[in-house]
Amino acid sequence: MTRALTATLFLLAGACSGGGEAQPQADAGAVTIDCAIGPGGTFGPDCKVEQVQEGDAQLLVVRHPDGSFRRFVLLADGRGLAVADGADEAALDYRNGMLEVTVAGDRYRFPATDKSAQGKAETGSGDAPGE
Question: What's the predicted TM-score (pTM) here?
């Protein structure tokens, strides 16, 4: 089953960049997320995320504490994120209101909403006969 996910931070107007700049200034409208950098890394509120527009694509730039960064494309069909650069692929795992994204030993936790579960809750609201 494919879930439609929307990361909550994507909707923050303050995190949007007006220009087509793919590598915005660190902390300019950034949101902090939990991340674990490198194999065996532990999660902590150590990464900053900024949303930028590049052409027709919405990108998230995740900045690591050491100054390195990773870019993700926000998938228009609501399935989550994909790696914007390089050959590594992202593994996505949604649970408990978080989208955990793993790429080459780095892990990131984005607040997210499972839109497919919302749709079921909205359509199954006790309208069945006999309830």
Answer: 0.71
